[in-house]
Amino acid sequence: MPQKELKISQRGIEMPASPIRKLAPLAYAAEDRGVKIYRLNIGQPDLPTPQKALDVLKHIDRSTLEYSPSQGNRSLREALVNYYERYQIKLNADEIIITSGGSEAVLFAFMSCLDPGDEIIVPEPAYANYMSFAVSAGAVIRSVVTTIEEGFCLPKVEQFEELINERTKAILICNPNNPTGYLYTQAEMNQIRELVKKYNLYLFSDEVYREFIYTGSPYISAMHLEGIEENVVLIDSVSKRYSECGIRIGALITKNKKIRETVMKFCQARLSPPLIGQLIAEASIEGTEQYSRDVYDEYVERRKCLIDGVNRIDGCYTPVPMGAFYTVAQIPVEDAEAFCSWCLTDFCWKDEKTPSDKVGETIMMAPAAGFYSTHGLGKDQVRLAYVLNKDDIHRSLFLLEKALEQYNSRKK
């Protein structure tokens, strides 16, 4: 019998590479050459984790690092009940399931609510990993396109309804939005509510950036929408608000008991969320109000620094993001991914401000095409995260301007 060829799964072939991390090998190679890289590609804040949380980490008084309950420690879930109360979201601890980051919450929501072939309507550009989780669940993303010219506002209801068919099972939103920083208005949230009610859809709502809203407009949670309480699955994470990306603690929240019972099967299969991460997250929730105010004020300044700077560069444009700490910018190149790669392989700027131990400096960005599922969109756009201090943002913008000049002058 002839030996069978080893093949990669079709799911693995369809799984998209992350636009946030796919250029990482080029960045590592540049650093090996001694290049300093300003990383605006990833939402990794450079702000310190709350001291209160770090103190808990340093003084863990346990003789055994045991499994936690599959749904997470009750004390953490009870602390989160009080946290959500600040945002007029009324829950009990049993309606909160702790996950290994917000990413696992999205995946478990998809696996619990969707069958292979089911369709999810997602406004794009969207967080790139939604597409990866959809592939994992065998689901299909159907996109409604938002545009940079209109500030990435939500399309009209007719555009949603054009996509709805017998396979449509859910709408997925991120509010405030990653990657655009857009904040949905009350009217837009009402539009989504009416669609969910009319077609009896699930509403997956990723709200991990609720602390970062830079406008007088109110934060409207999917949990605030009356009449669809059983349809809503809220996704959350402590990663961004407390600079705790590495502890991998998120939450899946729903009032729908059947969804929770199903999610728990997946939680039990992976045993438990990270024990130490839960201890740190719980310590971060209470008594860190001043920390949160200081972090918010810092991001207000960083946002102004980045947005003003981008829009001063010839040929660049970005709308003003109203939330989160990202923006999508249009830049004067035909292929932003090729440009971002070139910045890591060929561009290396050195002047009197370059650290003496470095051969030069460059900037790392996320090509925005990876945040669209519609082929051809976002090719001249990048996502920028204003997670660096203002001096580093200023330097990054200077390097971006110089890189664009050099890159575009090659054709002349």
* Sheet having the most strands: 7 strands, mixed
The poorly predicted ranges are none
* Strand order in space, largest sheet: 2-8-7-6-5-3-4
Give me the secondary-structure category.
alpha/beta
Mean pLDDT: 96
| Series of H and E elements | HHEHHEHEHEHEHEEEHHHEHEEEH
Q: Supply the number of helical segments.
A: 13
The counted number of beta strands is: 12
Q: Percentage of helical residues?
A: 25-40%
- Beta fraction of the residues? 5-15%
- Global Rg: 22 Å
Separation of termini? 60 Å
State the shape.
globular
Helix-strand blueprint:
Blueprint: H1 10-14, H2 24-32, E1 35-39, H3 51-58, H4 74-85, E2 96-99, H5 101-113, E3 119-124, H6 129-137, E4 140-145, H7 157-161, E5 168-174, H8 186-199, E6 202-206, E7 232-237, E8 250-253, H9 257-269, H10 275-285, H11 289-312, E9 326-330, H12 336-345, E10 360-364, E11 366-367, E12 381-385, H13 390-409
Parallel strand pairs: 1-10, 3-4, 3-5, 5-6, 6-7
Antiparallel strand pairs: 2-8, 7-8, 9-12, 11-12
Helix pairs in contact: 3-10, 4-10, 5-6, 5-9, 11-13
Describe this protein's structure.
This protein is of the alpha/beta class and 412 residues long. Helix content is 37%, strand content 15%. The protein is built from 13 helices and 12 strands. The chain has helices spanning 10-14, 24-32, 51-58, 74-85, 101-113, 129-137, 157-161, 186-199, 257-269, 275-285, 289-312, 336-345, 390-409, and strands spanning 35-39, 96-99, 119-124, 140-145, 168-174, 202-206, 232-237, 250-253, 326-330, 360-364, 366-367, 381-385. The chain has a 7-stranded mixed sheet, sandwiched between helices. Strands 9-12-11 form a 3-stranded antiparallel sheet. Strands 1-10 form a two-stranded parallel sheet. Helix 3 (51-58) runs antiparallel to helix 10 (275-285), helix 4 (74-85) runs parallel beside helix 10 and helix 5 (101-113) crosses helix 9. The protein is globular, with a radius of gyration of 22 Å. It starts with 9 loop residues before the first helix and ends with a helix.
